[in-house]
Amino acid sequence: MAGRQRQRLLLENAEQLVLVCGRREPFLRREGAAGLGVLRGASLVVGLDGCIKAVGQADVIRNQFSEATFERIIDCSGKCVLPGLVDAHTHPVWAGDRVHEFAMKLAGASYMEIHQAGGGIHFTVEHTRKATEDELFTAFQHRLERMLRAGSTLVECKSGYGLNLETELKMLRVIERAKKSMDIGISSTYCGAHAVPKGKTATEATDDIISNHLPKLKELKLSGEIHVNNIDVFCEKGVFDLESTRRILQAGKDIGLQINFHGDELHPMKSAELGAELGARAISHLEEVSDEGIVAMARAKCAAVLLPTTAYMLRLKQPQARKMLEEGVIVALGSDFNPNAYCFSMPMVMHLACVNMKMSMNEALAAATINAAYALGKSDTHGSLEVGKQGDLLIINSSRWEHLIYQFGGHEALINYVIVKGKVVYQNERCETMSSY
């Protein structure tokens, strides 16, 4: 009987328990994303295996389980419980910041002007190549901890500041090390085609990736040393054109990697059409996506990972979130954390998505939970509060969940607990003495 078995955690009597979805939907779109499942006066149980065992009204759960069986009980009266947030696009492994470039951008320099002058990605590549693996890991660890405190329990993490095999593998080893040693969930992405290395043409770089990088990744996967989940290419004018992108993505798919790439950011490249054709799991950015590309992505169930921080910081045209939602595209969100868009906080990303991309708060939360999990191929285990899914949760010190988005930058005082697999991995003591406004 479930009531007598040992359980890890009981969250009891939440003012609001935000399921996001409750019928094992792999994603939400259109009306599904606009209306989320919310229970009031509800409780949730996480078992010793780290998975959710029961979700329901507090009195029903109380009758079903004995309090003596729980390792920990948290009274959530007056508080809200939400799924852990999922950040579907980050570049968190690098050395050397680019604060000086922020001043250049404010003075009017474009992204590509800085890039062509040896800044941007090339500046970070130079510093990342010189850094030791331990130096990179220490910085990466601190960044992940900040993401966790801001509510992210699953994060996509890219390589891409090496652009040669040695440094790309160094970055992927750092990501693998964090997967094994940290509580936060990680989906790793090989992004060796993030820029064309100095001294090479795009065609030469493409040939090197296909002939040398990807076979080595396959070898390391078979030996169990590095497990990469996704392959990424920066498909952009002056970087990797459509044909080079196609070749790299197909070669990655052939060794079992999910296609999840940068497309249609600064120029219309027909990246969305290519991704739909290749069976991509997700495409990021899409500020310059075509109408035909939007329709193709909706038909192919290819997620659009929108990055409002990037459009905001680079003063780009905002992605057409409303059109995508209306056409039935699976819309996800990511922070695009990198030296160019220095944001750890998915609550702030959701706020920007609502204000600048005209998403509703329900749509933004769906995009930062179940749909972001789908973009990483993880929505069977993450992204909603359903029996059988991993017990990754947030408890916020407010009687309405919307405060997580409404309070721009307020997550540091709102988030009371971050929980991964039913274990409290962050507790904000300040919340215990604060009242909700």
UniProtKB/TrEMBL annotation:
EC number per UniProt: 3.5.2.7
Reaction(s) the record says it catalyses: 4-imidazolone-5-propanoate + H2O = N-formimidoyl-L-glutamate
Domain Amidohydrolase-related: 81-425
Matches recorded under CDD domains: Imidazolone-5PH (cd01296)
Keyword set includes Glycosyltransferase: no
Co-factor requirement: Fe(3+)
Listed pathway(s): Amino-acid degradation; L-histidine degradation into L-glutamate; N-formimidoyl-L-glutamate from L-histidine: step 3/3
UniProt KW Signal keyword: no
GO terms of biological process kind: L-histidine catabolic process to glutamate and formamide; L-histidine catabolic process to glutamate and formate
One GO location term (cellular component): cytoplasm
UniProt xrefs under InterPro entries: Amidohydro-rel (IPR006680), HutI (IPR005920), Metal-dep_hydrolase_composite (IPR011059), Metal_Hydrolase (IPR032466)
Keywords: Histidine metabolism, Hydrolase, Iron, Metal-binding, Zinc
Pfam (any one): Amidohydro_1
A single MF term (Gene Ontology): metal ion binding
Record-stated family: Belongs to the metallo-dependent hydrolases superfamily. HutI family.
UniProt-recorded name of the protein: Probable imidazolonepropionase
Species classification: Eukaryota, Metazoa, Chordata, Craniata, Vertebrata
